[in-house]
Design brief:
globular, seven-stranded antiparallel beta sheet
């Protein structure tokens, strides 16, 4: 029994020690100073959907894998944010410097004002705008009116993308999913009613896959 307890203790200790520490530094493409204390980030495991939040520019995660990185920059009552998918392959300790995109989504986190706009550096997005990864590949492109997107496409580092369309109330009306070669994989369309909406999903050839009744509007994540 004593040996069993020892093994259990050691196993628990190893599990604790196996956590991966991820520490990120950030640099701006907009030639503006960034206070590291104003930046926080979240890593969400795309397999388990578990989220892990940063503290002092670092976060501990239990496993390697594919994560969605959500970065928030605070400036008084306003917050600017962006997301991207990353693959964590290394273990134990990861230290990296990430480049903040030029195009960010700004909110004031006030449900009464419902304020939200896209900015490119310190200028409100208007007309066609595009942002790039460090290697020159597109990161985001879209058409905007006074900071609000009519449509936008968000690219992953592997070249795959999702194109979003919006109505005048900033609700998603259509999503299109594309692979690394720019081929349409599937899409869905939302039809809004007074208290609910109907979401219809189609394959690349336009064949209806499923139709769902949903209660809450899929508003853009702040």
């Amino acid at each position: 029994m004593k040996k069993l307890l020892t093994y259990i203790f050691l196993f628990g200790f190893l599990l604790t020690e196996a956590q991966i520490e991820v520490k990120y530094h950030f640099k701006s493409q907009c030639n503006s100073l960034i206070e590291q204390d104003s930046i926080s980030f979240e890593l969400q495991n795309l397999e388990s959907n578990e989220s892990y939040y940063s503290e002092d520019s670092k976060v501990k995660i239990p496993t390697l894998g594919k994560y969605e990185l959500s970065v928030t920059l605070k400036n008084g009552k306003y917050e600017r944010s962006y997301e991207e998918k990353i693959i964590i392959k290394e273990s134990i300790i990861i230290i990296d410097t990430l480049t903040i995109p030029t195009i960010l989504f700004e909110t004031d986190n006030n449900s009464e004002t419902e304020y939200s706009k896209y900015f490119k550096c310190d200028k409100v997005c208007n007309g066609y705008e595009v942002d790039y990864f460090e290697n020159g590949n597109k990161r985001l492109e879209g058409n905007f009116v006074e900071g609000n997107a009519i449509w936008e496409t968000e690219f992953e580092r592997d070249g795959s993308s999702i194109k979003y369309y919006y109505d005048k109330s900033n609700r998603y009306t259509k999503w299109e999913y594309y692979d690394q070669n720019g081929n349409l994989k599937e899409y869905f369309i939302n039809k809004y009613k007074k208290k609910h909406f109907i979401q219809k999903t189609y394959d690349a050839k336009g064949k209806l896959i499923k139709s769902e009744l949903k209660i809450y509007y899929p508003l853009r994540k702040n």
